[in-house]
Amino acid sequence: MHEKIIDAIAATGIYVGESILSADTNNGLRAELLKLHTAQNATRALQPAKVSEQAISAPEWRGDSTAWLSDAPSNKAESAAMLAIKALQLAFNAALFTGIQQTQLHYAHYPIGAFYKRHLDRFATSQASRGKTEPASCRVISLVFYLNADWLQNEGGELVLYDADEQRQIRVLPQLGTMVAFRSEQFPHEVLPAIRTRLSLTGWMLAAQS
Ligand code: OGA
Ligand code: MN
């Protein structure tokens, strides 16, 4: 599994395929995200997503709501996901010399019709660090784990990744059990609006800025 992902990242910068997370883990994450969505006073409620650390929410850019995972997992699925992602992080470092130090993860909930316009995941210096006192870090690998059962082709919500030369588009249905990993600095991408709610766990592997 790791080998397949590493080979794809090394060859093309993108992996789209089977998730490193088990079906149980995906279902547990999905249940937790739905719980966060309906919770009235959760300490960890979903918040309208921002387009940078400083920015207020910007619905003209992105219409999703997000909730960061804390370092302390709040259930079995989160702890399994964090372990699996940590193992992938170590495998990337060993094979690709990526120097990843940590992975930040958030749940994302796109209501019907929500989108995220074309963007790059790598921000300018230090914006990837959530804590202002942390040393500057940058996003090396972007990860998305989709949490939607039985997504149909005509329901929209595709992730569209653009090649550096803009010639090729890679389109991904946000299907439960599918994961995407790509080099953050390399691929502009967008999320198309969908006719149903679109759920994911999204993350970024961070390395110290050199
Ligand atoms: C993001 C993003 C892609 C997706 O959150 O930065 O691009 O498919 N997500 O949800
Ligand atoms: Mn993105």
Task: List key phrases describing it.
binds N-oxalylglycine; 7-stranded antiparallel β-sheet; 11 strands; 3 helices; alpha+beta; 210 residues; single chain; binds manganese (II) ion
Overall description:
There is one protein chain. This protein is an alpha+beta fold. Helix content is about 25%, strand content about 30%. The protein contains three helices and eleven strands; from the N terminus they run αβαββαββββββββ. It has helices spanning about 1-10, 25-40, 75-95, and strands at about 15-20, 45-50, 65-70, 100-110, 115-120, 135-145, 160, 170, 180-185, 190, 200-210. The strands form two sheets. It has a seven-stranded antiparallel β-sheet. A four-stranded antiparallel β-sheet has the order 5-10-7-8, with no helix packed on it. A hairpin with a 6-residue loop joins strand 7 and strand 8 (about 170). Mean pLDDT is about 90; it is low at about 125-130. It binds N-oxalylglycine (OGA) and manganese (II) ion. Manganese (II) ion (MN) binds near residues 119, 121 and 189. Manganese (II) ion binds near residues 119, 121 and 189.
